[in-house]
Structures are given as structure tokens and as C-alpha cells.
């Protein structure tokens, strides 16, 4: 099965379908990532705060795949924001991951009240220039935060990884990303399981002989989103990867986009957890 790539503004590409490991303990991440790589995923999304960079890195090292066959993302935690702090934090992440570079390094949250994401992004530019991150981006950034990064650093983040699922389709951010060449990466793409119950999803899934999770992942792919569903169950890991044998009509995409819902995670304007 060939996963399409989405081209990033630094010239590299990210697989449109990857695998996320939030809320998976380190040992479990080792097993889940090993299974995902076995099934065919070639993009893995972790973060310092997930406390499973070591297990993730071990699974990649033990997979038999060459390092450059796997697109690896990690994220800088809020308490590490700031220029010098960021340069220190990347060392820790690379050491735990057991690699000398990541394919994508993201600022996990903007934390507007700290007002340190500009200095943090400038440190990211240095990290990228030194070859320790191939691409640099952000997560949970609002339009106003993205505008500041672009205006004050002269560089557009390659990716903005945001909460995005049928109940929160993020039209405003997606439009801004499209205008500026920022790849949209969807976190909690299945609404942490909630979106699977929506009648429009179950009806469309039945019509195609697929599962609700597959219908939602197909919706993301057809919208152009990069998507990183999480599961630790081998059957679901495989199911979530098997989404290239059917497609939704424009009307079905629109019906899923019209599902009413709300934000599951924190509001980026306020989130400041250290
Ligand atoms: P998700 O939408 O991927 O949902 C995961 C949950 O859905 C699973 O725990 C399971 O209960 C269920 N599920 C998965 N596959 C299923 C299937 N085929 N059938 C039925 N149920 C299924 O939610 P998530 O884990 O929150 O998000 C995915 C990834 O996004 C995370 O692992 C992480 O890598 C990333 N993420 C990033 C941020 C951020 O702030 N940048 C925040 C949250 C998550």
C-alpha cells in the first residue's frame, strides 16, 4: 500500500498517514510503533511530554528499516520554550530517540502568555541549519500566532499540527495554511474515538463496506490533511492503515464536514501547562 506524501516548504515530504503515540507508556510505545512499522506506517509522531521517545526510538532502531525510511516527529514541551532552553531540550529528545536528527520538530503549544515562541522558533532555525531537524514547525498555533512567526522570523513553519476531526474541521486555519503553504496535520483525527459514533459517519462507512474509523481517515486524506491516528490494538493499527482502497464522494465529504461537535483538547489561547 502506498501512502501519498505531502510536500513541505523545506523540500522534504511527510507521509500523509502516520502513527501517533500520545498516552502510550514507553514500553507500550515500543510495541505499538514496532507493529505500526511492520504494517507499513513510515511516519511516527511522539513528543517529549509523552515520555515515550525512548521506546519509540528503540522500535525504529529494531525495525530493520534504515533511519531515512522513517519520518520521525517530536515536539518541544512548553517548559523548554526560549532560545537557550530549546537548544538544550533538543539534545535530550535526540538522545532519548537514539538518533542524530528528527524529520520534523514542532513547538508543542504557543503558550501566548509566556511570549517565548518567537525565540523558540529562532532556536529551531539554528537546529535545522545544524541538520538536527530536517523541517521545523508548530502545533496548536492560532492564525495570530502563525502571523507573528512569519512576520518576526521571516520563515513560515512547515507544519501546524492542530486538533482536527469532523466535529472541529478548523476551516479558518486550513484556509490560512493553504494560503501560506503550511501543511495541516490533524491530531485526534478520530476525535479520540468520539467521531466514530456520528450517524453520518456510520452510514457512509456502511455504504462503502468500511469501518467508521476508515471513513473518517478517508475524509481527512481527501481534504489534504496529514493524519496521525493512534491505537495500541494491532487490528486497529492495521485497519487505520487500510484506507486507500476506496474514496468518498464530494457529497459524503461535505456530510462529514457538517457534523456538529466541539473541541476535545485544551484551548491554545489559554493552555499553559508546564
Ligand atoms: P485519535 O483521534 O487518534 O483517537 C485514538 C483513540 O481512538 C484510540 O485510543 C482508540 O480508543 C480509538 N481508535 C483508534 N483507532 C480506532 C479504530 N480503528 N476503531 C475504533 N476505535 C479506534 O486520538 P489521539 O491519540 O488523541 O490523537 C492521535 C495522535 O495525535 C496522538 O497519538 C498524538 O501523536 C497526536 N496528538 C497531538 C497533540 C498536540 O497537542 N500536538 C494532542 C493530542 C494528540
From TrEMBL:
The record marks 75 as: Lowers pKa of active site Tyr. The keyword Transport does not apply. Residues 17-259 form the NADP-dependent oxidoreductase domain. Substrate binds at residue 108. Pfam families: Aldo_ket_red. Keywords: NADP, Oxidoreductase. The active site is at residue 50. Gene3D superfamilies: NADP-dependent oxidoreductase domain (3.20.20.100). Belongs to the aldo/keto reductase family. This is Aldo/keto reductase. It comes from Tsukamurella conjunctivitidis.
